[in-house]
From TrEMBL:
InterPro entries: Aldolase_TIM, PRAI_dom, RibuloseP-bd_barrel, TrpF_fam. It catalyses: N-(5-phospho-beta-D-ribosyl)anthranilate = 1-(2-carboxyphenylamino)-1-deoxy-D-ribulose 5-phosphate. It comes from Deefgea salmonis. Keywords: Amino-acid biosynthesis, Aromatic amino acid biosynthesis, Isomerase, Membrane, Transmembrane, Transmembrane helix, Tryptophan biosynthesis. The chain crosses the membrane at residues 41-62. Belongs to the TrpF family. The keyword Ligase does not apply. It comes from the Bacteria. This is N-(5'-phosphoribosyl)anthranilate isomerase. The lineage of its organism: Bacteria, Pseudomonadati, Pseudomonadota, Betaproteobacteria, Neisseriales. It is an enzyme of class 5 (isomerase). Its EC number is 5.3.1.24. Pathway: Amino-acid biosynthesis; L-tryptophan biosynthesis; L-tryptophan from chorismate: step 3/5. The gene is trpF.
Length: 205
């Protein structure tokens, strides 16, 4: 079975639909105002409404307030939440929605212990991203895949600096359940390139 694909940081309905038609299993919507990929609640609702059936919508938050996440959930029918900051299990679980938790790979972090602390009914996976000081994600930076454990207590989503030329090698090395990409399929920050999206999807094995 092919590795699942999430393309993150969509900012218009037509491109999101195209990305889905090219083979993405999920698209990500960034609710983090400092990001160049940030979307408003109204735009996110429009994008989700344009997706073909069976393509999942994922809302990405970074250390957002409860009120902020709840306000998005009231208006946007997201399938999954992605918490990309320092949120703990209690924070992530309180919305009663399935979620994935990002972990930025940094020397000294016990990756398996961290992942094990999120094993719970609503946590559907651990997403690994590169650690870049001062920027929570979407940096286009990768990390050393060779250093990762082979077995994980939750489905693994690999991200961080993936692009059409390295994604097959990353999958062969890590064998994740899914891959997630933003910068590697963009013309410039926040603008997706459908040719790169197509090449990325084709390269995923
Ligand atoms: O995409 C963003 O702007 C973003 C902002 C803040 C936190 C996470 C963000 N994106 C996620 O970052 C990783 C890696 O992205 P990249 O492919 O290296 O650019 C990915 O999981 C995105 O969902």
């Amino acid at each position: 079975m092919r590795t699942r694909i999430k393309i993150c940081g969509l900012r218009d309905a037509a491109t999101a639909r195209q990305v889905a038609l090219l083979g993405a299993d999920a698209i990500g919507l960034v609710f983090y105002p400092p990001s160049p990929r940030h979307v408003s609640v109204a735009l996110a609702a429009e994008i989700v409404a344009a997706l073909p059936v069976f393509v999942a919508s994922v809302g990405l938050f970074v250390n957002a307030s409860v009120e902020n996440v709840s306000a998005v959930l009231e208006k946007v029918p997201l399938d999954l939440l992605q918490f990309h900051g320092d949120e703990d299990l209690a924070f992530c679980s309180q919305f009663g929605r399935p979620f994935i938790k990002a972990l930025r790979v940094k020397p000294g972090i016990n990756l398996l212990e961290y992942a094990a602390s999120f094993v719970s009914p609503l946590c559907r996976g651990i997403l690994l991203d590169a650690w870049v000081d001062g920027v929570p994600g979407g940096t286009g930076e990768s990390f050393d895949w060779q250093a990762l454990p082979n077995e994980w207590p939750l489905p693994l989503i690999l991200s961080g600096g993936l692009h059409p030329e390295n994604v097959a090698a990353a999958i062969a090395c890590v064998q994740p359940w899914a891959v997630d990409v933003s910068s590697g399929v963009e013309q410039c920050k926040g603008i997706k390139d459908l040719v790169l999206v197509e090449s990325f999807v084709r390269a995923v094995i």
